[in-house]
Amino acid sequence: MDLFNWTDIGLRVAQLVVDDVTPDVFLSALRAARDDDVTDLLPQVRCPTLVLHGKASPIVSLNSSRQLAAAVPAARFAMYENTHPLVLGEDRAVQAMQAFLDEHTEGPDVPKGTAVILFADIADSTGLTERLGDTAFRDKARELDGCLRALIRETAGTCIEGKLLGDGVLAVFTSARQGIEAALACGSAGSHAGLPLHLGLHAGDVISEEGNVYGGAVNVASRISGLAAPGGVLVSETVRSLARTSAGVRFEDRGEQALRGIGEPVRVWAVAPEEGG
Description:
single chain, Rossmann fold, 10 helices, 2 domains, elongated, Alpha-Beta Plaits
């Protein structure tokens, strides 16, 4: 039995606000809120953070919520159907909060053992820096970095902190299909931002330590990304084998490639949309 009539409670709270707030007080609060911009402080947040967005929200846009999640290091982003999870009892919001609490009770969700590794880097960053200037390039790269991390989290990936664009964005997945979905979404975001990306995926054993991952498989993913055309996604034979029947894409053979610092050649495949898709 539901002990609370959430709709009735919500209406009463709204009526109290209408009755108690004069137009002058409301305008004063709006002006104060406009002046209290803490955007520059968001990257300093170090505690685990969950950003919830109601799809039907008439006040906060989806883009604003995504930008907030992208600006806070390692923030988790989740959407639900209604406008307010506490008043409307939205199950998906409650589930997202419970999953978030469970995750951070158990520790960081960095895969151990075998993982699918995504490496992304800006194509021709030196040339872009010369054309845009240091400050403009870093600002655009920082904004794109946040967008990529939000997209990776939305596709169930784990971003590895300490890796920033310029050095490369590194993420790990437990599913090859999700890794490919994230890579394609990141490629589109980079092209849209005017900063095309090299994107590479490999799968293999990783060493997990203090929220970071190491190992030869990470190096292979990095080298494969360097072979990708700007905006393109290349994957190793290992990833193609794992995802060839589930990813909903085509794989175009690019043959065996010698990778710098890697003893044996690696067969790579370009990811392309399904014909007619």
